[in-house]
Amino acid sequence: MPPSVTGVELREASVDDVTTIHTFIGELADYERLRHEVEITVEDLRTHLFGHEPVARVTLAFVDGEPAGMALWWRTFSTFLGRPGIWLEDLFVRPAHRGRGLGAALLADLRARTDGRVEWSVLDWNEPAISFYERLGARPHAGWTTFRWLP
To answer: Given Cys at both, which of 29, 91, 122, 146 links 35, Cβ 3.0 to 4.6 Å?
Structure first.
């Protein structure tokens, strides 16, 4: 964790945190102007993050005991590198806590979990996030286009 971050705790989410995770997803969707696309429920999170076969994990950031941010992620595997990596689905820090190093701390935590790639997507219009990632040394992956099948 960056030395400038004081009063911050990072920890793995537990089933008791599903409401907080759900709230963060909603707040992120509001920021990204995508609230109309959010369908996930607290029960979905309970099932898919903490059920019989968890498919993702969440690291939570707290400032002085209050929920301040999260990283929702899962493990990947690169056949070219021959190493496991991490896909970061959502990185969110509440606006009141931005600029204090929480996002960098959450990313550093993920980086420490793998010697492979840590990858994520960012909306093209989100210049603050793009600038933040570039300041940390991350770069866009040129030449690749994301495809998606929708349900």
So the answer is: 29
Query: Which residues are marked as active site?
Result: 133
Beta strand pairing call for 66-78 and 8-12: unpaired
Q: What CA–CA distance (Å, rounded) separates 137 from 1?
A: 16
The token pair at 21 is: 């995770």
Residue 74 corresponds to which amino acid? W
User: How many other CB atoms sit within 10 Å of the CB of residue 145?
Assistant: 4
Say which DSSP state 44 is in.
H
Token couple for 22 = 């759900």
Per-residue pLDDT of the chain (151 residues; tens, 9 = 90+): 444 567 899 999 999 999 999 999 999 999 999 999 999 999 999 999 999 999 999 999 999 999 999 999 999 999 999 999 999 999 999 999 999 999 999 999 999 999 999 999 999 999 999 999 999 999 999 888 888 898 8
Q: Are 56 and 89 in contact (CB under 8 A)?
A: yes
Say whether pTM exceeds 0.85: yes
- Contacts with 46 (C-beta within 8 Å, 6 or more apart), sequence order: 15, 18
Contact 21, 72 (CB under 8 A): yes
Q: What structural domains does the chain harbor?
A: 8-135 (3.40.630.30)
